[in-house]
Task: inverse folding
């Protein structure tokens, strides 16, 4: 009772509108709140809640931006099912509505990869398990790509947004330092195949459960070149979160990306290495973007790292 009372007091810290929405959804679903999770950069309110003995995660939007996140998740669920990847989703996912408020309720999966790694104190085994399981998903979803350069062009749009809308306006780097690299030819980095592999794939996004990789918070775009996702995951694990075992884990995921995945996608060694460096550039640009206000010095370090990897990648 005391823990529940503490959570209820914490919920009062939200705005009056958000507090009212949370209360309405909890009552509608007959849930009791247990924990408030970090909302990350999505702007959504994310709660752990219980009904009888079953634990759930409740995700509620707070504005138009976070509603887009919710709708992207819903499309992601549909796309994973369409690819035959129901195994990657929680056992239960429900999409509910209270008046015009759309929310997501799903089975609580426990610790994510990052939390499991910190808890274990030695993440080497976790990286090995991830490597084996994710490669089987790549093989399962491999298809011919009718638009081989579209994924890399989409990558360029995302990288351009991070620099042109956030990093450069903050005065961290000069426009010309970025522009001299971003004009690369996407065709040089394209494969005639694609598989599972979107852009949002970090140690906080996945769970190693039930002999598979659980991915409960997908975005709508789930297909592409997975080398970029592996580079982002490896880079965040080692250079941003400093997870246990991440030094060896980085090498393992880099090796997977530039050998087995490269062979699967029929990419040359230098292509695969360059695409991995593109992934590192994207990861560092995001790490910089989300630290501009709270740690400008670190944001600059990450932005410069992103440019270094972009320069390496564009030497192909």
Result:
């Amino acid at each position: 009772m005391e823990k529940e009372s503490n959570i209820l007091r914490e919920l009062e810290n939200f705005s009056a509108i958000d507090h009212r929405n949370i209360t309405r959804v909890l009552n509608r679903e007959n849930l009791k709140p247990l924990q408030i999770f970090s909302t990350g950069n999505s702007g959504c309110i994310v709660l752990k809640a219980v009904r009888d003995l079953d634990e759930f995660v409740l995700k509620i939007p707070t504005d138009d931006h976070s509603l887009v996140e919710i709708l992207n998740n819903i499309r992601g669920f549909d796309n994973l099912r369409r690819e035959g990847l129901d195994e990657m989703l929680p056992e239960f996912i429900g999409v509910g509505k209270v008046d015009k408020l759309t929310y997501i309720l799903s089975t609580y999966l426990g610790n994510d990869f990052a939390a499991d790694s910190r808890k274990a104190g030695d993440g080497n085994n976790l990286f090995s398990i991830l490597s084996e399981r994710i490669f089987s998903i790549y093989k399962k979803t491999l298809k011919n790509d009718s638009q081989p350069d579209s994924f890399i062009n989409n990558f360029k749009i995302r990288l351009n947004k991070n620099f042109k809308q956030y990093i450069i306006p903050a005065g961290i780097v000069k426009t010309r330092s970025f522009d001299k690299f971003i004009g690369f030819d996407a065709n040089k980095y394209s494969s005639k195949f694609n598989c599972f592999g979107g852009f949002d794939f970090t140690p906080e996004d996945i769970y190693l459960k039930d002999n598979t990789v659980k991915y409960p918070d997908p975005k709508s775009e789930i297909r592409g070149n997975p080398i970029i996702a592996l580079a982002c995951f490896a880079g965040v694990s080692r250079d941003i979160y400093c997870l246990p075992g991440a030094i060896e884990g980085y090498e393992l995921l880099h090796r997977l990306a530039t050998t087995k995945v490269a062979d699967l996608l029929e990419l040359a060694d230098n292509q695969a290495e360059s695409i991995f460096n593109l992934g590192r550039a994207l990861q560092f640009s995001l790490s910089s973007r989300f630290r501009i206000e709270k740690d400008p010095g670190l944001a600059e370090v990450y932005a410069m790292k992103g440019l270094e990897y972009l320069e390496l990648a564009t030497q192909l």
